[in-house]
Hints:
With 230 residues, the protein is α/β, with parallel strands linked by helices. It is built from six helices and ten strands.
Amino acid sequence: MRITEVGPLSADDVAEHVALPPDRPTGRGFVRLNMIASADGGSAVSGRSGKLGNRDDHAVFAALRAQADVVLVGMSTAVSEQYQAPGPGDPAVYVVAPTPDISGDPELFASGGATLVLAEDSGVAPADVLTLRAGTGGRVDLAHVVEQLPGRVVMMEGGPRLAGVMVALGLVDEFFLTLAPRLVGGDSARVVHGLDADPTPWALRHGLVDDDGFVFLRYAKPQPQTPEPA
Length: 230
């Protein structure tokens, strides 16, 4: 597969890059992970990944969002990136959190705007907040969450530690990575951080380079190998 060098990404470029595969699984949620990293591996600038992007990264992000039924995001990312409650026609927002504390972004959950995803034993959530309970021991059972979304396209937007858990559990089907031509230093986490994952190579399905030097990559999860007959 060749990476195509273009100028500013056209609407057709973006549409081809994010097109949903026709053979995606329907018995559970189809999970797409979208992240951005600097050339030196940083996932954020001053705590925010949005500062790494450009117009084309924003266009890819918007196109992926437009195809999603559900956005899945960790609480710390929702707060730091200032997530807003979805409007009419927007995908539902599921926020994975270790506790029921929504004080960092109460407006996100106002009037049932977003769903708070908690473990069964993570405490009592505010009465007016939509909640989804999965898992015990203070840990959300992410596999159960994905299983509760059959046929839906799930856009997983971070943060890095939640992405790390999703990848390690084998729950991510596609990985979209924007590489920004920036060197940011600092100590931000990698885009997939924390737990060790299966190192089997993923398949590069599509790639683009824009006139700013941003690289847009799309990977598909490796498929299980069928054992050869003895």
